[in-house]
Design goal:
A hairpin with a 2-residue loop joins β9 and β10. This protein has 237 residues and is an alpha/beta fold. Helices cover 36% and strands 25% of the residues. The structure holds adenosine-5'-diphosphate (2 copies). This is Phosphonate ABC transporter ATP-binding protein.
Length: 237
């Protein structure tokens, strides 16, 4: 479970990005967070892996306290959380397989990874992850030679290779055309269903949110202004 209790985040410049958020997200849930640019979606997601510190309140992820965690505890937390970004964040010069293996870095000593000495089990996990998002035939292709949709699926595979408990996706389809956006959302949904990974996806558009979210959280100016199912969203938003 992910539990926000009275969470506020004020950035150094004085922006109140989150104001008094109370939320409980059950294990295995597929949650979509919607809201305009600046509503606080990225900040909400980044508090979960400790990238943005809380100004006040408390936050627990899988029974682990995020606020007040030591650097070592944060490293352990991040190893269990897969992150997906709008801009894919792949290393473009290297192969798809190497990119996915980077998901294993949390559990591979640095010197081994620098020498490319991954364990066989790491490679097996990487290939399984690529199969799951149906880009396994691209394993030895340079990441830069893939389409946007394929790159995003590789970044999902990289997150999967971590064997995460939680998957966070910050505007994962914002730079994709609508058909490709649907493919990527379907992949995220299928992975959630098959593996039970708690998934939180930030989106701009309510139509995609309604199509894929079990639960939709609407944000405005750092506050939760809606929390319910897609049908309820139809009536209220
Ligand atoms: P969204 O993801 O919904 O676009 P954000 O969480 O990125 O919203 O931003 C919420 C508010 O916090 C915005 O006003 C934004 O400009 C501000 N903000 C985001 N990141 C920072 C930062 N690192 N420093 C200062 N202000 C920030
Ligand atoms: P996105 O919302 O797509 O993540 P942004 O352009 O809002 O991208 O933010 C890019 C980076 O700039 C992020 O690291 C964010 O935290 C930071 N940022 C956003 N708004 C501000 C702000 N007002 N002041 C300082 N940093 C900000």
């Amino acid at each position: 479970m992910i539990q926000f209790s009275g969470v506020s985040v004020v950035y150094p410049g004085g922006t109140h990005a989150l104001s008094d958020i109370d939320l409980e997200i059950a294990d295995g849930q597929f949650v979509v967070v919607v809201g305009l640019s600046g509503a606080g979606k990225s900040t909400l997601v980044r508090t979960i892996n400790g990238l943005v510190p809380l100004t006040s309140g408390s936050l627990e992820v899988g029974g682990r306290r995020v606020d007040g965690a030591s650097r070592r505890q944060l490293r352990a937390l991040r190893a269990d959380i897969g992150m997906i970004f709008q801009s894919f964040n792949l290393v473009k010069r290297t192969s798809v397989l190497n990119n996915v293996l980077m998901g294993r870095l949390h559990s591979t000593p640095t010197w081994r990874s620098l020498l490319g000495l991954y364990k066989r089990s790491d490679k097996e996990l990487a290939f399984q992850a690529l199969e799951r998002v149906e880009v396994v035939e691209k394993a030895y292709v340079r990441a830069s030679n893939l389409s946007g949709g394929q790159q995003q699926r590789v970044s999902i595979a990289r997150a999967l290779a971590q064997e995460p408990q939680v998957m966070l996706a910050d505007e994962p389809v914002a730079s994709l055309d609508p058909p490709t956006a649907n493919v990527v959302m379907r992949d995220l949904q299928r992975i959630n269903r098959e593996l039970g990974i708690t998934t939180i996806v930030n989106l701009h558009f309510l139509d995609l949110a309604k199509r894929y979210g079990d639960r939709i959280i609407g944000m405005r100016e750092g506050r939760v202004v809606f929390d319910g199912t897609g049908e309820e969203a139809d009536e209220k938003v």
